[in-house]
């Protein structure tokens, strides 16, 4: 949304190349699972993005929370049994994760299908052996400074020129176009396609498809993908115009119109391929208007574009460390933070937890910091009567410790505890809960089990 706003406000100052670069940053960032930069410019830390809404399911009951039959949260008594029972009802996260995974497989199949179609198209195409045409392409390669070996194919099975391949790039030209354009017009086509090769546009197009595969449920991501393809074409046209004399601008525009006219007379249906891997020519109006009004950008405009890219890159490659924690963290060391100060915990896992909340047990207040660490919910409990960051961690409650996970069967969890050389010291049973107490790594560990389902509800270190 920021990029679209900047495009609208500074459309006369932005070069098409820099706009396309901004979309490339977005696509790359969506493929990075963990933020590579510190959260100095995080939108979360600046307060521009609201964190997830807190609800009762965010609470994980531990030793302190299960000391009594209910707890008080924002003036409301909630029975412990209800909280545990709700945790083992239909897990919407798992359901949506399954639907998401099925969607990924479906779109991955479409992605593979498209690539197979391209490979079949190449088999049906003929290598161009015309020395005059090949010489023209080689001269264009020198102008664009493409040193890779580029193979030229001619075919009757597509209606628009295209590039394909990253390591061994190929240009495929429709036979109708070869037969109906002159040498200079063919030169324009070669320049355009060679710039796609030089800028690795096919590679970024494939990355865009992978992003759409992973985020298939998000319409904004699809919009970004198709918008970036349009800006890719505009950036490519802009690069061609930079190589031409001003008197050739009109000829280049008429060449584009001529190709579109030939396309309209061609009944070949390659819509799926065109929308996926072939550089789409559907945004003709924008391209023609850009060619008509093209002027080389001044140095201040270029510097401004670079500045915006750097700022978007810094913000986009940042994130909230509480949501995307350091990968150096190991669950085995979680108990190292017992009896450490709140300041130490925040220094390690981020000053901005997913949520902080207060809970009263038997009218004794507790303050809790809630983090998502390596995919597990982790909550640090503190004395709610002390307000400064020096207060010590009383207990740590989590949904995953070593190889024991929430939802795991009791038998499996107890077997893992035994293999990990945890010393069982006590078992306590309530109406609907079972508590198994262990000594592990010089600290105490409690497994809270739902008696009805015989599954692990939470793990507590204290």
Automatic annotation (TrEMBL):
Signal sequence interval, chain numbering: none
Keywords linked to the UniProt accession: Membrane, Transmembrane, Transmembrane helix
Top-level lineage group: Bacteria
Coiled coil stretches, renumbered: none
Presence of the UniProt keyword Nucleus in the record: no
Transmembrane stretches, start-end: 18-37, 99-122, 202-225, 301-318
The protein's name in its UniProt record: Peptidase M56 domain-containing protein
Domain Peptidase M56: 2-289
């Amino acid at each position: 949304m920021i990029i679209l706003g900047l495009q609208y406000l500074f459309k006369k100052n932005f070069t098409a190349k820099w706009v396309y670069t901004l979309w490339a940053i977005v696509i790359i960032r969506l493929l990075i699972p963990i933020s590579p930069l510190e959260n100095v410019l995080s939108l979360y830390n600046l307060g521009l993005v609201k964190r997830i809404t807190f609800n009762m399911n965010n609470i994980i009951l531990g030793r302190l929370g299960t000391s009594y039959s209910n707890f008080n949260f924002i003036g409301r008594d909630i029975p412990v049994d209800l909280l545990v029972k709700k945790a083992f009802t239909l897990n919407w996260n798992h359901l949506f994760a399954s639907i998401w995974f099925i969607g990924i497989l479906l779109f991955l199949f479409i992605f593979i299908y498209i690539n197979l179609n391209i490979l079949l198209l190449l088999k049906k195409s003929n290598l161009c052996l015309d020395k005059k045409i090949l010489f023209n392409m080689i001269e264009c390669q020198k102008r664009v400074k493409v040193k890779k070996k580029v193979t030229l194919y001619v075919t009757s099975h597509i209606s628009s020129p295209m590039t394909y391949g990253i390591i061994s790039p190929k240009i495929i030209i429709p036979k109708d176009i070869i037969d109906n354009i002159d040498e200079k017009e063919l030169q324009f086509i070669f320049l355009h396609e060679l710039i796609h090769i030089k800028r690795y546009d096919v590679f970024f197009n494939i990355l865009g498809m992978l992003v759409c595969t992973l985020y298939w449920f998000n319409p904004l991501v699809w919009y970004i993908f198709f918008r970036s393809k349009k800006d890719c074409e505009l950036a490519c046209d802009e690069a061609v115009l930079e190589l031409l004399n001003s008197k050739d601008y009109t000829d280049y525009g008429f060449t584009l119109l001529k190709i579109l006219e030939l396309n309209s007379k061609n009944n070949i249906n390659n819509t799926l391929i065109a929308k996926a891997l072939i550089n789409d020519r559907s945004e003709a109006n924008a391209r023609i208007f850009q060619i008509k009004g093209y002027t080389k950008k001044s140095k201040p405009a270029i510097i401004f574009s670079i500045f915006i890219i750097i700022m978007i890159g810094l913000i986009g490659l940042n994130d909230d460390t509480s949501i995307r924690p350091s990968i150096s963290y190991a669950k085995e060391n979680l108990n190292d933070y017992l009896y450490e100060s709140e300041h130490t915990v925040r220094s390690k896992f981020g000053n901005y937890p997913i949520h902080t909340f207060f809970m009263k047990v038997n009218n004794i207040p507790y303050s809790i910091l809630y983090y998502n660490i390596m995919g597990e919910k982790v909550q640090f409990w503190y004395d709610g009567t002390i307000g400064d960051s020096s207060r010590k961690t009383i207990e740590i409650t989590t949904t995953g410790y070593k190889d024991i996970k929430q939802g795991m069967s009791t038998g499996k969890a107890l077997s893992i505890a035994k293999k990990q050389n945890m010393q069982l010291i006590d078992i306590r049973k309530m109406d609907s809960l079972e508590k198994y107490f262990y000594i592990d790594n010089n600290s105490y560990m409690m497994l809270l089990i739902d008696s009805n389902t015989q599954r692990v509800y939470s793990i507590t270190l204290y």
